[in-house]
Sequence to fold (543 residues):
Amino acid sequence: MKKTSVNSRKLRYGGVTAALTALIIAAVIVGNLIFSMLASRFTWYIDMTPDMLFTLSDECIDLIRDGDDEFGTASAIERVDQIREESGDPDISINIIFCDEADNIVDDTTLRYVHNTALELQSEFPDHIKVKYHNVYRNPSAVSKYKSASTSTITPSNVIVEFGTEFRVYSSRTFYSFDEDGETAWAYNGEKKLTAGILAVTRTESPIACITINHGESVPEALRASLMDSGYIVQDIDLLEEEIPEDCRLIVIYNPMSDFKVNDGMSVDEISKLDDFLDQTNSLMAFIGPDSNGGKRLDALEDYLEEWGIVFDRNSEGMPHIVEESADNSKDSSRNIFAQYANYGLGASITKDMRSSSYPRTVVFPSAMSISFAPTYQLVHDSDSDFDYAQHTANSVTRSIYDVFTTSPKASAYAGGILAQSATEANPLKLMTISEEQKSTEETNYSSMIESSYVIAFGSTDFALEKCLGTDGYGNNELLLSLCRYIGHEPVPVGIDMKPFADYDIDSITTAAVTQYTVILTAVPAVAAICAGAVVLIRRKNR
Fold:
C-alpha cells in the first residue's frame, strides 16, 4: 500500500512537472512570436554593424523633417501637412511601396536592407510615411499607374516612392554602389536614395531636366540617376523635333559627337532654342571632353558657350588641350586629374558644404580638357577675397564667370602631344566653371527679386561615368547634388553618405587561436555542468 502511494505521488509530481514544462515551452514560443511581431512592427532592433547600416543618420532625419534652412524650402513633412489641409484628407501620406509580400522582401538579401531603412523611416515619421506591399504577380493592376509606358514592367525587385500623383520607381540595384565590374556591391546607398525619392515627390513643383539627343550622345545611367536624385524628372529631348517643355529647368548636353544646328534656312535653330531657354532664368550643363565630336571643335555650340565666357582650349589647328598631371609613368594615371576646389566666388558658394567637411572629398576629372575665360570678358580682381573672375556687359546684360574646380600648379596641357599650357600657382588650369546672368524682376509690392540663369561647363565627360559618380570614394556625385541644389534652390540629399559594407573577417587572431577558443567555449560549460551535477549527486547520497 505504501509502495502504491509512493508511485502515485511520483506519477502525480511527474505529471505536474511535465505539464509545467509544456506550459513554459508554449509560453516561450508564444512570447517569442508576439515579441517578433512587435519588433517587426515597431523596429525594435539594435544596429551592431560597424557603419550603422540599419540606422537612419541625423542628416536624413533633419532634411526630411526640417527642409533646407539655407534656401527656406519646406520640408517633406510640412508638405504633407499642407496637402492634407488643402485637400481635407488626413490620410494622405508618403508611401514607400514594395512590390512583393513582406515575407518575401525580408528573405531577399538585396531588398532586406532597403526594407529595413523604409521601416526606420516609418518608425521615425509614423504619421507621415507608410510602408506598403503589393504583390505584382497576384495584383498587377495595383502598380499599373507607376509604369512609364504601356510596355514597361514593374517587377518584385522594384521599390516605389509615392506622394499624391508624384512617384519615383527604383530598381533594387540603385540602392547600392558597385565596383567597376558592375557586379560586386561594396556600399549601401539606400538611405540617400529613399530620401531623394521622398524629397522629389513632395516638391511643390517637379521640374524637368532634359538631356539632348540626336548629336550622337551616349549618356551614362549614373548621370541620369544623379539628376533624379536631385529631384528632376529626367527625359530626352531632340531640339530639332521637339519644343522644350514648359516645366523644364535644366538642359544637359553630354559629349555630343556632332554640332548643334543654327538658322541656315533649312533646319531648326537649336542654338536659338537654348538661348530662349536661358533667357528665362533656367540652367544649362555642358560636358565637353577631348573626344567630343572626335576631338574637333563644335563650332556652333562652342561659339554660343563663348558668349557665356566659356572657351574650351584648343590649339590653332583645333586640337583640344588635354590636361595631364604626372604622378608616375602611367599616362592613364597622369590624366586622372584630382581637382582643386575654388575657395572664393560663386564656385566656392556651390561647394561650401563640401569644403566645410573635416576631410573634403576628392573630385576627379579623368581625361579632361582645360577651359579658359573668353577673351571678350574682362578680368575682374576681387580685392576683398583676393580672387579673379571675368565679366562682360552687352545690351544692358551682364554675365560673370567663375572657377569651380582647377588643377594643381603641377599640371600641364598638351595638344597633339606638344606642350600647350603649364599651370602655375597663380593661374592653374580650369576644369569646371559656372557662368551667371542675373535678372531683376519687379514684384507687386514695389520690391524686386534677383533671379539668375546659369551655364556650367565641365571639361571632362568621364566625370559622369559610373566609376566616378557611382562611388563614395570620390566627391563627383556630391558635387552634382550640391550644384543642382544651388541652381534649383531645392533640397537634395547632400551630406547623406553611402555606407560601405564592413569586412567581417577575423584578422586579429590566427586560425589556431580561433580553434582553441572554440574548443574552450564549447567544453568549459559542459564540464562545469557535469561537475556541478556530480557534486549534487554525491551530496544527496551522503544525506
